[in-house]
Amino acid sequence: xxxxxxxxxxxxxxxVYVMLALAASLLYVTFDSASVWLTASLVNTLxxxxxxAEEVTSEQPSQDLSINQRMKNYTKQLIYxxxxxxxxxxLCIVILITFLLKNIFxxxxxxxMGFVNHKIxxxxxxxxxxxxxxxxLKFFDMHKAGNISSILINDVNAMRDSIxxxxxxxxxxxxxxxxxxxxxxxxxxxxxxxxxxxLPLSAILITKIGQSLRRKSSRTYQQIAEVMGILHEMLNNxxxxxxxxxxxxxxxxxxxxxxxxxxxxxxxxxxKVLSSPLNEILGVGIGVLLLWYGGLQVLEYQxxxxxxxxxxxxxxxxxxxxxxxxxxxxxxIQSGLAAAERIFGIxxxxxxxxxxxxxxxxxxxxxxxxxxxxxxxxxxxWVLQDINLDIQKGEVVxxxxxxxxxxxxxxxxxxxxxxxxxxxVSVDKIDVxxxxxxxxxxxxxxxxxxxxxxxxxxxxxxxxGLDHVSDTEIREAAKAANAAEFIEQLxxxxxxxxxxxxxxxxxxxxxxxSIARALLKNPPILxxxxxxxxxxxxxxxxxxxxxxxxxxxxxxxVIAHRLSTVTHADKIVVMEAGEIVETGSxxxxxxxxxxxxxxxxxxxxxxQVER
Length: 611
Prior knowledge:
Strand content: 5-15%
Number of domains: 2
Order of helices and strands: HHHHHHHHHHHEEEHEEHEHHHHEHEEEHH
Number of strands: 10
Helix content: 55-70%
Number of helices: 20
Structural class: alpha/beta
Radius of gyration: 37 Å
CATH topology of the largest domain: ABC transporter transmembrane region fold
Oligomer: single chain
């Protein structure tokens, strides 16, 4: 139950609402118990042969009366009017008022707990979303986007159901059980003891079912995450699916995954629905035994009055409802805890990259970026090995080499998307791990090969992340990025919605929007991941001119796939298998006749053939 108590910590900000709901619950239970007690009085009034008036008073001193007899006398004093018909009329009015008040307070306690339930889920989802932002890219490299989405949506929804269905019941039902059990003891302690003898057996059964339900729920949530993962992959790669005509294959893969989810979910449901009838059978069994034993006390031994027995039976069967409800609460809690485990698995994760206790604010880039004895690995495989490199302010440095050489990882260490395993990366002789993350990354502009845009307007995407940016500044940035012309030709101009990932724009247009965003940010350090490699010749020329504008008077780190685009770089760093094998200018590396020369000749020959 540790997980459940952790969930209860989210209640603290709303303790006032919980106290009000508790007060309403107490009043609800009071009127609920009174309604059951009065219902028994109604039955007795209708079917008791002896007039009610004869039992209203007693010559026996009040201090010698039992609690049961005193309560019956108070009840009869409330409803007795001399004439049986008037008594019946008064009793009906009292019952009506009692049920009305009971349901008013039930509504109020449900309203209060409903507010708390939904606020808790909002807080959990907000905390989870914030935590995802705090985690490093390594976490997202190791987890599928569909799995993460499933936790944020499906698991939180499951936890919401668990909280909403259990909180109010845990608040109300135990009170009802306590009050009704107390009334049963007041009427006949012998009959009540008989009723609770078998309850431990029922509790054991409920616990075992709940434990099994939790295990099955956990497997079900994991499987629906797999289903969402397949869906997410299909949506992201729908063009490839259609291009390779693999719709049938993808349908079979999806059906296989949803089929497994169905089997797991049905096993859970089968166990879930079993608990309720089992508990009801146990409850009815207890009721039948008590009906027989209590009937003997009335008819044969005459140790119990008919009114007391009627009231006891009505209270007993009324008690079965909260007992049955509490058995379902355990199942609901166990199902929700299976989801909570996955949620807290993320909330408890320590970020691989985070600020130190007293980070240094990054204010201005003045001298150099330096890699010193840098080693880095993903899990067990070393991606960078013994890297040493100096990049001076104002230099354009290109990283080239075969796929998997470690080029992207090299530049990802500067904004601390990852932290080194050994060695250090420093900016102006201060380790990047000592800088405040936010101010460090605000000093960087990044343009990637895969353009990342949001499903919003062009103006929103250009000004993304910047506060109080003016329309004039956005237009100037678009003009510098060679994007103003095509934007102004759109029906709504800068207010045009570009769709998911900018799908309504061409590749060149998306890239120029991305460059305009970087220009508006005006960073001293720029990272370019070959922004023109996926474009046609006309778009490439427009984007390249925008990039030239972007690089002006900035320190630029370029990941180059087309070597022809970096021939004018101040320094070219050639990488292979995670190591720097050559460094120098374009002309120097050609004359060295090493790996760079081989790569350049291969690309030159390929371009000649394509022409």
